[in-house]
Amino acid sequence: MRNLCFVIAILLSVSIISVFADETASSNEKPSSDKSYIAGKIIWRDHNLKGATVQVFKDPKMKEVYTQGVIMDPNGDYALEIEDPGIYYILAFVDDNKNGKFDSGDGMGIYGVSDWADSNQNPTPVKIEAGKQLVDIDIEITSIADDKGQIKPLYFADHPNMKTGITGRIILPDHKFKNTTVFVYTDPTWSNRVAQAKVSEDGEYAISLPAGKYYLLAVIDENQSDLLDAGDKFGIWGMTKFGMYPKPIIIQEGTVRTNRNILIIGKINEKGKPVPFQNPINDDNVKQSNNFIVSGKVSWSGHDVKDALVQVYSDPSLTSAIATTKADDKGNFKLNLPEGEYYITAGIDTDKDGKWTKGDGIGAYGSDDATNLMPKKFVVTKDKENEEINIVITSEFDSNGQLIPTEKIEEKQEELPESEITGISGRIIWTDHKFTDAIMVLAKDSAFEEGVRVPLKLDDNGFYTVSTEVGVYYIMVIVDENGNEKTDSGDGVGFYGTGYHIDGHWGEPQSVTIFSGRITPYINIRISAMIGDNGKPSLTQDGVRISYGDPNSVFNTDEYTQEWWYWSKGLAFTFTKADEGWQLEDVYQFEPKEITTIRNSKENNSGVIYYTFDNNIWAVNPDGSDKRLITSGKTVTGTFEGDRLLFFDGYKGLEIFLPSEQTLLELDWNQVSPQASLSNDGKSVAFVRESNGNKQIIIRNIESGNEIIVPGLNTDMSYPSLSPDGELLAYSASSAINSDQQKDQNRDIYYYDIIAKRTEKVTTSPQDDFNPAWSPPGMRNLVFCRSESGYTQLWIVSFDAYGKPTERQLTKFGGRNPAWSPDGEKIIYENNAQLWTINIDGSDEKPILVNDEPIFGLDPFWTR
User: Fold this and answer.
1) Whole-model pTM over 0.90
2) Which residues contact 666 (CB under 8 A, 6 or more apart)?
3) N or C: at which end does the chain have fewer Cβ atoms within 10 angstroms?
């Protein structure tokens, strides 16, 4: 390599002008498909690659440039048209300081040279055929110019200021790692490679990466073919023995993950099959079996599945496919496989560019989330020759190359039209369990002291419809798994609106309001606990999801063990496979870790919705995407801009949360109730203070502590709501003047003019009016709740130019705790403990759905 370095040094001195010349062609756009071209990526982490130059040579000594192009993409993607078929060599320069010269700090890389100091490495030739397109010709920057203009190897030691990345060591006793590379991928199917690093002779490596989720593959390239082929050894982060599933590494911004050591556990045999490094299987001693034709289908709703690439692996590491095929235009495919155990994946290159880029999809057999769950084992036997393999694309690459879940589309629960039937419909959910019968218990009280048992008949997906009487009910469901008509070992239990908690108690069930002549939809109940042999309930996977949402990471240690990790909550759950499904084996608690959200939470959405459930505060986008747990607390509100949130903590009282800074401010105020309102400038809080049975509303300046007591003869003032300009305070109160009178009195809506210091009555109704909320700036409306005979609906008050109010009913199917969308066009509210929205003209009354399931939530608040 020293001779090559000398040639390159001469080359630089004579061609540097042409490298950065104005007439150099741009390599941004891919040439037409009928021309020959090469395409790939320049790799140099944490560097802006816009302006980098790719040069193509016909001779291995790289003396005369054949063609070249300047990269306009800061991420390093390039494509160059090649007019003449032949053999070529490729080199890349990065003018890091953008001064038009190749000088100190600038980088260089040659295709095929991963270690600049290795004298045995030479440029790898690239063969271009007429009309052919050659992709994935990635060039890693492996050298750098020093202060004297000398080119030296680029090792991790030259990056002492690396702020985000991974370091570790390759483990193989008594081995010198001369031809070893660590490859970094964003997916466990090893499709999207984003970085690589040469390993030092003593096994150390370091890779600078942006925040994200990655999989690491270490390869000892014994034959120096730059391929993972016969004779090569490999190891994967997270695998301590052959036959395990890979595990990801999650990197936070500004964090270097150290000691990510990779054990060499496998090698590629002469037939190209991965086998254990220790005691490898000798295929010659394996009895040959007949081949069987296995058919299957790849599906991805709303996408073209033609030419979906189906790959078959003999082990769960997915390092080397033993068979591949492509699907037809309907997604159908066939495989010819010998008897054995396999792991099967599918990928769809949506833009047909030959790379894994934004919008391309990945799926795995038996996995409903290829982002986290690896493919299940598929056993090929004569009995399964006619069994169809269904692979659903469940993840896709985002603009950062990270794998994110696709939008799942399940069988829709349609809201039934009004009819003479009164009742409810929904779905009973118990993951990995098949059942068509269940017992529903309807009770008037949340303690279920008196309940009516109703047998349910479910379809194959757990959907049901049942007639009931009009009223307000709490609902429990029991799945009698063994059919013995008793609630005992193996049976499942779930309550509507809550779940079984990790500390061994049930949450607070939520009520369902049933109207006459209507089938109330979406009354879905998850089986959150299973009765154990000791007669006590234990958490199911569905129960964990109710309390904590989807896990940040799911690890299949083997086919009988699954781990769910919640990094930000400091919790991990281990489940083991049993005859009756996954059972909770262990719960591990650790110091919570902040994780970087890969997807922009506000991208393509109108703000963020915050709400509470089971004394936790959650956030979700208005389209139902990116649901996440924020902190513990309830009754969340805030500013329309979303820069400050106010909520109530049962132990600490009122707290203010700053989402952008992820910080909390405790308001150490006495005798404060959960009912509170934050001014839109974030400077004042209106809250209810209870003392000696009386309720007063106080407006307090956060910084100075100065208080305004809202005047009035009422003793039960509640539900304060500050207007966006901070001049008016709406609230509810009865006309009672003492606590004895207020018990049987309905409330009305009032507002207090803070500037003029006067009080105005807004509603006068024989019904109970409460919980007002002001519209966003520029509007003159209030939304509030009106309750009559136990049923609560939303109403709107509009004020004319003279302040005269006009009322109209908004909802037909119930509603509580309303809040406005930031644009003032919608109202979000809770209905049967679910998040619903409605247009302010009364149209489009519906729940927010995620995968056709409503979001359980209370006290919603919508910010920009």
Assistant:
1) no
2) 652, 653, 654, 655
3) C
Name residue 618's amino acid: W
Give the integer Cα–Cα distance in Å for 829 and 837: 6
* Nearest one of 342, 335, 343, 348 to 298, comparing CA atoms: 348
What secondary structure letter does DSSP report for 399?
T
Report the candidate in 613, 604, 484 with the shortest Cα–Cα distance to residue 548. 613
Do the Cβ atoms of 228 and 318 come closer than 8 Å? no
Q: Tell me which H or E stretch contains 276.
A: strand 274-276
How far apart are alpha carbons 708 and 36 in whole angstroms? Answer: 77
- 314 and 333 in a single domain? The answer is yes
Strand partners, 657: 645, 664
Q: Is 850 helix (H, G, I), strand (E, B) or coil?
A: strand
Indicate if the alpha-carbon torsion angle 188, 191, 193, 194 is positive or negative.
negative
Q: Is 619 helix (H, G, I), strand (E, B) or coil?
A: strand
Q: Which residues pair with 775 in a beta bridge?
A: none
Average pLDDT over residues 215-223: 93
| DSSP sequence for 686-721 | EEEEEETTEEEEEEEETTT--EEEPP-S-SB-EEEE
Q: Report d(CA 250, CA 235) in Å as an integer.
A: 18
660 or 495, greater pLDDT: 495
Residue 780: count of CB within 10 angstroms of its CB: 14
Mean pLDDT of 170-198: 90
User: Among the three residues 120, 154, 188, which one is the final residue of a domain in this structure?
Assistant: 154
The pLDDT-based confidence of 385 (bands split at 50, 70, 90) is low
Q: What is the DSSP string of 433-495?
A: ---SEEEEEEESSTT-SSEEEEEEE--TT-EEEEE--SEEEEEEEEE-TT-SSS--TT-EEEE
CA 751 to chain centre: 42
Whichever domain contains 190, its CATH number is: 2.60.40.1120
* Whether residue 839 is found in the same domain as residue 695: yes
H or E element: which one contains 3? Answer: helix 2-19
Decide if 208 contacts 162 (C-beta within 8 A): yes
- Write the CB contacts of 799 (distance below 8 Å, at least 6 apart in sequence): 780, 781, 782, 805, 806
Name the burial class of residue 419, with classes exposed (0-12), middle (13-18) and buried (19+) by CB atoms within 10 angstroms of its CB. Answer: exposed
Residue 99: per-residue pLDDT:
82
Distance of CA 836 to the CA centre of its chain: 22
Q: What pLDDT score does 570 carry?
A: 85
The vertex-842 CA angle with 837 and 844, nearest 5°, equals 50
Res. 763 pLDDT band, cuts 50 70 90: very high
